[in-house]
């Protein structure tokens, strides 16, 4: 083979190699570009999905935050002036107030427990200015009166209308019903009354709050039976559970007022009966002092005066303060009282059960019990 032919063949082979290499380079670059494009597209999709999840989480958070945890309090009619002073000092946390302004007469009319018209007017103006809701309490503590009213359709209708008239007259935001002496035989009448009242309140866009005794199981005992939590949970906008008086003031044996473990049992029983968004935990701010098997109720202000000369301590097991000492006359005194730590514990329990809030009995003489919540 001639030299010229050999050179020609070599030249052709080199050309083929160069072309193949060029094609390889081009294909490789295109493949990388396609891969990068796919990765970018995948990243974009992933980012979009993450953004959607984030937005959904934010929406869920907004929904949870929309159900705000509220703190409310009762003001007794017998200490209205001091209760108002406490409200003014606690206006940043107490956003609803329940002054006990009414009782019940045996014909269904309302028993007037209001302060003077001028005092009530000033109170309502203050609450309106501060944006504090007012749901006055109608309280009844007499079996005989409840028996008269709840067994008469005429008296029930009159009772409902009297409440509506007072709401319209004073511009209340609703009403709180606290009936603590109801026979088992009056259960149906009591629930019928609540349904009728709720129907009339809805017509004027007002709220119904119902206050009930605490319980840990189904019970056939008078008021505990009449206060059917499942039915009341359907009817009322708010249900306040008085998680105190575990040991009654009438007891001759001293004991805690609202021990923590018992409160947990009460709320566990309430689950599935009263909607959480309607359930409000009642917290006591008072004390019981036993002396010779008789107890008297004290405000925290009175407790602080005692503790100036007596050693008391917070009992973590029951979530209350306790003191035992010799009284001035030499007799044995036993004191169970609320503490700032105890209030905080109960608020934490209410949050643990995702409740709508807490309600304090009562404003007036609570001193610094609520200051840590400001």
UniProtKB/TrEMBL annotation:
Transmembrane intervals: 6-27
Entry-linked InterPro entries: Chitinase_II/V-like_cat, Chitinase_insertion_sf, GH, Glyco_hydro18_cat, Glyco_hydro_18_chit_AS
Keywords (A to Z) from UniProt: Glycosidase, Hydrolase, Membrane, Transmembrane, Transmembrane helix
Residue segments, region Disordered: 37-66
Biased composition (Low complexity): 37-46
Pfam families: Glyco_hydro_18
SUPFAM superfamilies the record matches: (Trans)glycosidases
GO biological process: carbohydrate metabolic process
UniProt domain GH18: residue ranges: 1-374
Residue spans of biased composition, Acidic residues class: 47-65
SMART domains: Glyco_18
Gene3D superfamilies hit by this protein: 3.10.50.10, Glycosidases (3.20.20.80)
Gene Ontology molecular function, alphabetical: chitin binding; hydrolase activity, hydrolyzing O-glycosyl compounds
PANTHER family, per database record: CHITINASE DOMAIN-CONTAINING PROTEIN 1, CHITINASE DOMAIN-CONTAINING PROTEIN 1 FAMILY MEMBER
Family to which this protein belongs: Belongs to the glycosyl hydrolase 18 family.
Protein name: GH18 domain-containing protein
Organism of derivation: Candidatus Dojkabacteria bacterium HGW-Dojkabacteria-1
């Amino acid at each position: 083979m001639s030299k010229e032919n050999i050179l020609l063949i070599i030249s052709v082979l080199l050309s083929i190699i160069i072309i193949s290499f060029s094609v390889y380079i081009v294909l490789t670059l295109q493949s990388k570009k396609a891969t990068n494009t796919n990765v970018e597209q995948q990243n974009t999709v992933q980012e979009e999905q993450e953004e959607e999840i984030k937005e959904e989480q934010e929406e869920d958070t907004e929904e949870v935050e929309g159900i705000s945890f509220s703190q409310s309090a009762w003001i007794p009619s017998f200490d209205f002036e001091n209760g108002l002073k406490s409200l003014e000092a606690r206006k940043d946390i107490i956003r609803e107030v329940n002054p006990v302004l009414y009782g019940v007469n045996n014909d269904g009319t309302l028993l007037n427990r209001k302060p003077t018209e001028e005092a009530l007017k000033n109170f309502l103006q203050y609450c309106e200015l501060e944006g504090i809701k007012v749901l006055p309490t109608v309280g009844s503590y007499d079996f005989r009166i409840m028996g008269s009213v709840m067994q008469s359709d005429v008296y029930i209708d009159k009772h409902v209308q009297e409440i509506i008239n007072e709401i319209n007259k004073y511009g209340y935001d609703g009403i709180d019903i606290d009936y603590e002496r109801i026979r088992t035989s009056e259960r149906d009448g009591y629930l019928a009354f609540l349904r009728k009242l709720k129907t009339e309140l809805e017509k004027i866009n007002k709220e119904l709050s119902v206050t009930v005794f605490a319980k840990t199981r189904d019970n056939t005992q008078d008021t505990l039976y009449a206060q059917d939590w499942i039915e009341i949970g359907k009817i009322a906008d708010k249900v306040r559970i008085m998680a105190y008086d575990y040991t009654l003031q009438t007891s001759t044996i001293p004991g805690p007022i609202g021990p923590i473990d018992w409160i947990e049992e009460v709320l566990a029983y309430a689950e599935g009966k009263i909607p959480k968004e309607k359930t409000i935990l009642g917290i006591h701010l008072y004390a019981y002092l036993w002396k010779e098997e008789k107890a008297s109720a004290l405000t925290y202000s009175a407790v602080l005066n005692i503790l100036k000369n007596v050693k008391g301590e917070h009992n973590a097991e029951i979530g209350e303060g306790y003191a035992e000492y010799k009284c001035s006359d030499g007799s044995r005194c036993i004191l169970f009282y609320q503490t700032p730590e105890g209030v905080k514990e109960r608020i934490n329990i209410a949050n643990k059960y995702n409740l709508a809030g807490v309600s304090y009995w009562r404003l007036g003489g609570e001193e610094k019990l609520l200051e840590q919540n400001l």
